[in-house]
Write a structure and sequence with these properties.
The protein has 376 residues and is mainly alpha-helical. The chain has 13 helices and 4 strands. It is globular and about 65 Å long.
Length: 376
């Protein structure tokens, strides 16, 4: 259920900031003024490759993993009832998945064509399986599972012949993951041709590894050792991840759309760097003057993502008659009259997105001031 609770001072502030930056980034890239005019770093890579925008989702799943360690470790260590813990995990995963379907189908909810995969749905599935692995496994086993999933996915995608195609390939519409998605979820997928989905079934397997690397990082941060040592090793392992990702890219290209194993290792390395930076400056050195806006976002992350998506879709549906007598969407009206009227198209598009982020920051700040934190 959705509840309201007061936050405890024992939270890892750097993790809330990291989460807040990530969610703000999600809202920024999802709400340009014009989809036809976007600066390249704010777009996903067309296929292979990695832009700053391609870092946002794996960063969030990495954060999910770190948060699992912090939220469930004490209960696991003191031997709380495993069935109750798993039931709690299932309920939360199911709620996230349901919210994803509500967002995906809004406002018509045509069940014959509703997109079943999605961002919140992938978060739900990854959270569920990663939590179960955490509750049932040692740190060594978690490490092995994370690596095995990546190797299995790599071999399956590059060696198993795709039925109807006859050979293994990594093309958008004909790879093994696309074949699985199209056969199991035909008519309920995203893409122009509706034959593959960037949050599809098969590509969720390596996404679980993304969260498992977050869980391992959470273990590391909770260890009783010098903070400087923690940070140094986080940077070292981050560099190792980057190097391995670059090397693996030769055989299994870095690709967000099919969540390749090289992409998982590469983005986990960058996530380690970013979290190490935040942890050192915020939690160790106490440099917090810049963190409040991101904490505000981070403490109601799912709420602001869901609500901003609903309102964004509504603004595209509400029609207004323009000065020329043409019926245009409320979003287009605002964009053309308040941004495009005095800025170039691409700068107006960016300005619209930035203002949208700031408006939602203001709304979340109201909840923060009232100590309302909506937890799924």
């Amino acid at each position: 259920m959705v509840t309201m609770e007061t936050q405890k001072s024992t939270r890892l502030l750097s993790l809330d900031v990291f989460r807040g930056i990530t969610i703000a980034g999600m809202i920024l890239v999802n709400n340009p003024g014009s989809w036809g005019s976007i600066y390249p770093p704010l777009e996903h890579a067309k296929w292979n490759g990695c832009t700053p925008t391609d870092l946002i989702f794996p960063f969030f799943l990495f954060i999910v993993g770190v948060a699992i360690t912090y939220s469930l470790s004490k209960r696991k260590e003191r031997g709380d009832d495993q069935f109750k813990l798993m039931l709690q995990v299932f309920r939360r995963g199911a709620m996230l998945f349901l919210l994803g379907l509500i967002l995906q189908g809004f406002p018509y909810y045509d069940l014959s064509i509703i997109r079943i995969p999605g961002v919140l749905q992938r978060i739900a599935v990854v959270y569920f399986f990663s939590s179960l692995i955490f509750l049932k496994s040692s740190i060594k086993t978690i490490s092995i599972i994370a690596v095995v999933l990546l190797i299995f996915y790599w071999l399956a995608m590059t060696l198993i012949p795709v039925p109807g195609v006859g050979y293994a390939n990594l093309e958008p519409a004909t790879n093994l993951g696309a074949w699985i998605d199209n056969n199991l979820l035909s008519g309920h997928l995203w893409s122009a041709t509706k034959v593959w989905d960037p949050e599809g079934i098969f590509s969720t397997i390596p996404a679980v590894s993304t969260a498992l690397f977050g869980i391992l990082t959470g273990y590391w941060l909770r260890k009783k050792m010098d903070d400087t040592t923690k940070v140094v090793w986080m940077f070292i392992f981050g560099n190792i991840g980057l190097l391995l990702g670059y090397i693996w890219d030769f055989w299994f290209p870095i690709n967000k759309s099919i969540w390749t194993s090289s992409y998982v290792i590469y983005t986990a390395g960058l996530a380690l760097h970013f979290l190490a930076f935040c942890y050192w400056f915020i939690d160790v050195k106490g440099i917090k003057w810049w963190t409040k806006p991101f904490v505000v976002y981070g403490l109601n992350a799912i709420t602001v993502f869901f609500a901003s998506g609903i309102i964004g879709r509504l603004m595209g549906m509400i029609k207004i008659t323009s000065a020329t007598g043409e019926d245009i969407s409320l979003k287009t009206y605002i964009f053309e009259n308040f941004f495009h009227s005095w800025l170039s198209t691409i700068n107006a598009s960016l300005a619209y997105a930035l203002v949208y982020v700031i408006i939602w920051l203001g709304l979340m700040w109201i909840l923060y001031a009232k100590k309302i934190f909506i937890k799924v």
